[in-house]
Fold each of these.
Amino acid sequence: MNGSLKLFLIVLGAVSGMLIISQLVMGLLIVNGQASLIKAHQHSGYLTVACSILYLGLSLMVIASVPAQKDR
């Protein structure tokens, strides 16, 4: 696997994880009365979905491209 692709996948995975956690935190704040965060929650939700789908797609492509190892 290409080293730069591996680094990109690690960074993208970390960003996806942070976005998912921020969605949880903003959702909890909205439930507890911070209605001003609704638009931010919606927009970051779109970004979370886009990053997560990109990460999953690229990760699956990398996994599928690894050749099968033969038994010794």
Note: The longest helix spans residues 3-31.
Amino acid sequence: MINVNSVNPSGQLSPELKKRIRQDVQSMHAYAIQDSVGMVKLDAMENPHRLPAHLQVELGRRLGALALNRYPDGRVNDLRRALADYAGMPEGFDIMLGNGSDELISLLSLACNVPGGSVLAPVPGFVMYAMSAQLQGLAFVGVPLTPDFELDEAAMLAAIAEHQPSIVYLAYPNNPTANLWDDAVIEKIIAAVGEQGGLVVMDEAYQPFSSKSYLGRISRHGHVLLMRTLSKFGLAGVRLGYMMGPKALIAEIDKVRPPYNISVLNYECALFALEHQEVFAAQAADLVQQRERLLKALRAMPGLTVWNSDANMILVRVPGAADAAGLVFERLKAGGVLVKNISKMHPLLSNCLRLTVGTADENTQLLATLQKAL
């Protein structure tokens, strides 16, 4: 007789129930969020600035008046138009919204899950490219960057020729390395993917802090999508990503989007923010200034390797033995500063920490605590 209890007293799933869950899912780890209570939170590339008090009050009134008893309505199309205008979307293109960029990445994998399909991206890179591919049954091909975290042109072109991926992701700038890649190499990769019929997704999550964008070149291609998020704009808690591309291409991917994926609260917050975009632009400008301050101070610390950044994060390598980054991470945490230890993410990131750019006061505390930790 089959045991109908799904969980036994030891807290383990029953063998019968485990048979119903994919083996690869059972071997995975859920995305972990670090406990940040009481900490200077510099681990998740968030904009540290809150809304000014008068805007908090105004937004609260606006959200309180929403019809939460109704499904989202045509107001979501007002947001699509506002975002297209804000981004400067080219003629002949359309825009698609997601519950964060994470959902858009998952929907791309779902739409492009054809027999023999694969997803390709440089590594180290954003973990969701590989995870979304795996969850949809697509092979993931990671092509290592050079030791200086530049695109390996020959390796990328060889992998594209061999695997003919359905989707190639190019983060511009990259996470967690925070750098922009060579434009000439990017164009060669885009051309190679186009020749074999694949898609290229330019992921510009950190565009508010970057010195360059691919937007001005996107209309040259019929197989390139440009993806952005309002998380780094200053609305990480709202969870709203958007993707632009040729209308016919967006129309196909949009077919797999769940109905009402953008809540009334999401789109009203986003519309409100776009109406006050000058506030967020000033916050981004402040963070760029703070980034330059941090880069200068970090490079003055003996033994620390610091890479250039076009995002609101800085990649550093600490000196010492194999787990020196782990030791420095724990010392920072004990000092009340939470950063991201990425030293185990990929061999190229050995002894590396990722530091989010914070407010002036937060960065002062980071620098002082890091100096002691080293």
Note: The chain has a mean pLDDT of 94.
Amino acid sequence: MDVLNLLILVFEACLYFGLLVCLLHWRARLGIGVLMTVLGVAHFLETYLAARFYVTTPFGMASPGSILFYSGKLAMILMIYVREDAATVRQLIYGLLGGNFICLLFAFILRLHPGHGLAPGAMPDNDFLDQMGVLMVWGTALLYIEAVGVILLYEALGRWMGRSPAPRLWVASVLALAFDQIGFYAALHILYDAPASVFWATLFGKCFFASVYAVLAAVYFRFFASGVATEKRFPSDVFADLTYRERYDALLARSGVDTLTGVMNRGRLEEVGPSLIQRHLHMSADLSLLIADVDHFKLINDRLGHLEGDAVLKAIAQALKSGLRNDVDQLFRFGGEEFLILMPGIGEDAALNAAERLRQRVEAQVTAGGAPVSISIGVASAPAGGDSLRSLIDTADQGLYRAKANGRNQVDGVPRTA
């Protein structure tokens, strides 16, 4: 029965996350308010279940309200932050906090009425309303702290875990949920004398479902998703600080974009490349650099005109970008008809294979005047190919030169397939 309950909970988590992520994905058409309203309504069910409804799991007795719905809400807060900004998250948290305070206020005021039930013996449970109100306000107060903390953790983890969102979402969620479990269990223990076994079962359950939601988030980001110093402020300004920094970073990123192809330019490479390489060398992690050059590009310009040449560069940039790992690999226009790619976490053999796939993708997708366009690619991997951006570029350039000298349409001397 324990395993069956867990399987049902996993199914419910997939369904819950799937419905929420659809609303997030369609927010441009429906409006972000739809998602926020759904989360607000689900907050009551989440709190009610945490107070009254528990099931047996391999972790022990735990409530779906805590391990499934609350974990999912925290994951969705991070998803909203990633896809929108901190100011949007602030609206959700403040809305929940304000709504719960209002509910608690009127729960106390309504007790002044001599209430009657619709049927004999069906009298209002005022004590339960009071307890629910306290739990909802206390839970939302914790959520405010955790929302700030989980976003700060998510951003800080980017320095060590790279820019891929799903792994950072998992680590940040687990840490925030551990903090939440301590605070929320204290309220359950005071109000309902909850035993210690519930604490541990719910903690393990929250960590388990944080993993489930991280996997689902990774699927979403992979297939469906297309820091400024300030003076000391009150906690209420933290969301504003986060939003300002995020928008500043977005503006900075746009300023480093090549206007023709839409990929990052050489200035952006020189800004982010050295620190990325040194970070991976420090962690003894793999990293590779690819330089791709368009074969016979001058002939394309001479025969078909520069407008057609520009169209070819745009098409090649799009073909290369579509063949890279989202939020991991970084594509730059290095100059003229050359593109440079940084591939964290990939060694020499994997980089050669990735480069060959990119070469084939360009040859299959890009044409000029009805004829296929090809590229040659040089590959360098740290540390054997260099321990700095400059040395890796030099090594990749040598590979590119060999590929050109050996007949073009090749990867560092690896001949094209028939």
Note: The CA atoms of residues 78 and 151 lie 7 Å apart.
Amino acid sequence: MSNSNDTRASLLKKARRIVVKVGSAVLTSKDGINRKTIIRLAGQLARLHDKGIGIVLVSSGAVAAGRTRIAEALGSGIAEAISDLPARQAASALGQGRLMHDYDEAFGWFGKATAQILLTRDGLRERGRFLNARNTLEQLLSWNVIPVINENDTVSVKELQFGDNDTLGATTVGLIGADLYINLTSADGVFDKNPDQHSDASCLRSIENIAALDINSMCDGKTASGSGGMYSKLRAARRAAQLGVPTLIVSGKGRFSIEQAFTEEGPGTLVLPEDHAVSSKKFWMAYHDDPAGTVTVDSGAAKALTTKGKSLLPAGIVQIQGCFERGALVRICSPDNTTIGVGLTNYSSDELSRIKGLRTSQIEKELGPVHYTEAVHRDNLLLDAAI
């Protein structure tokens, strides 16, 4: 990579498969879903599609569309009062069909076919179901269909409360093997500090090392309409970067132009990928679930993991937090409570509590015959995870 401008200008030419995420803050107005925005977006994506680029669209907006339908049928007062989980899920059930109808109609005007895909985090937790979803998307893309993905909010209790489609977009990047992630937002790009609180904040042209970025200090607010905010967008961009995939965070408001964003003077912020990409399987392993517990290691084990690429042995463990079974995803922390990474544990929390600090030769004396000497094998470990 010679410089950020050259990289930005060459991205569209190199990209053959793109994930585009658009959030509620872009799609909605005070009257609900803005159909003009959907039509404008469909037209721009259709032009990219005409160039032979495979496109998957990850779209929010079902709850907002549902509120509009409820207002039409029952009055604006009831629609504005929607806040608790059952009501939001019901609104999503009403709105998803309307949202998909608008997309299908808009893309149809440009000669493009769409397909609705509703995913849940739980549905991708099991590796076989993850691969089934991948195969379905591969088939649709081979037919030149544009899949439109959203979370299945009506059944995703935890995801609707805490999840966001920025994370779903990054997951989709790994799911289909995309080589570019475009995140359309209500902001002009990523600012060096919160522009709502600092008048001197400036938009970054590029972020070369997102792993070193302190996104907590930069992003402390969420948009009114969406559920993510810039924090979740940068966390998603960091996950994409781990896959070796760049992210373009750019405004989708007003008369936006995705194609213009790829020019040397185009708007938005380009997040560059990491030089060494993790495997799709490790990516799935690290982000298919929330960590069920925390394993704290001593300084020697932390150094062995981070600088020598070693597995985590029970001898290096000093503390166990949480209750989990074998095969669970756990967070691994250094003595100062800094997260080193995440991994799949070969032992339950109870077993690890019994063997922590023990040498390999002592494990069988405590537990009896065992199949593994490692607490977490390096093949099931992802360092610097964007949790």
Note: The longest strand covers residues 17-22.
